[in-house]
Amino acid sequence: MTATFTIAHLSDVHLSPIVGFTPRHWNAKRALGFINWQRKRRFVHRRAIADRLVADIKQEHPDHTAVTGDLINIGLPAEYEAAAAWLASVGSPSNVSLVPGNHDIYTRLRHDRGIGRWSDYMASDAWGQSKGAAADFPYVRRVGSIAIVGLCSAIPTAPGIAIGRMGQTQIATAARILEQLRHEGLFRLVMIHHPPLPGQARANHDLADAAGLAQVLAISGAELVLHGHNHRPMTASVSHQNGRAHVIGVASASAGRVQGHEPLARYNLIRISGSPGNWRIDQRQRGLASVDGPIIDLEQRTLD
Prior knowledge:
Elements: E1 3-10, H1 28-39, H2 47-60, E2 64-67, H3 77-90, E3 96-98, H4 126-129, E4 139-143, E5 146-150, H5 168-183, E6 187-191, H6 210-219, E7 224-227, E8 234-240, E9 243-249, E10 266-275, E11 278-288, E12 295-303
Parallel strand pairs: 1-2, 2-3, 5-6, 6-7, 7-9
Antiparallel strand pairs: 1-10, 4-5, 8-9, 10-11, 11-12
């Protein structure tokens, strides 16, 4: 089985503007999040830039697009609706896979579907259902020789907290599925919003059960893990009995201003080729070198 597939990876779009913030949606966390948006985030995250990256992705003709969360900001119904329309502009559910971020499950919202509006982008296909995937997460999809395993690390949290958690049941299910996919000789691509390994994010913004997931990656294995959350490019790896699980984080796809260690908007194009035991992963980062400049190749490398 020898083939070549290309995956586009983008994350942390934080779509603007924030609308529909009526008194019935007020709580402490949303109020603080809205203030943060008004004072800082709205000057960084620009919908027009995200749309430019999506247009560039379409010109590259990837086989599939992976979106690793934080489509919205403070969890308002109007934000979920706008994000659903944006997802449709990226592609159909058969061509786009999504996992939610902490801003997508920001705080409790009564009597509203929330991320349920995006469910078609976060569901197992018929093949994945045959693998015994969960009704929600993890979900499993197949793109040629690639098996996509979507994990959910997003949970409602208190103000000032952006921690993630998978829970023991989801971790155990992921371990079983990854083992099964290994025996079938497929390239295993895991999607999660929070960085999956201990120490990859600061306290109160990290994955609470990262040690458990890292153990799964070390025992059951995977070939590639894609994440977002930190708004900057990141690379790491976990060794396992069949090779190495490469872990790649990406910058925000809407950033129109450099902020600390967070660069301007970019996305990954990941070319996967080869066969079981001899997979090759080539990564291209495309994005902005200047706010008003074109979208260009920023970095290219092969993951060893």
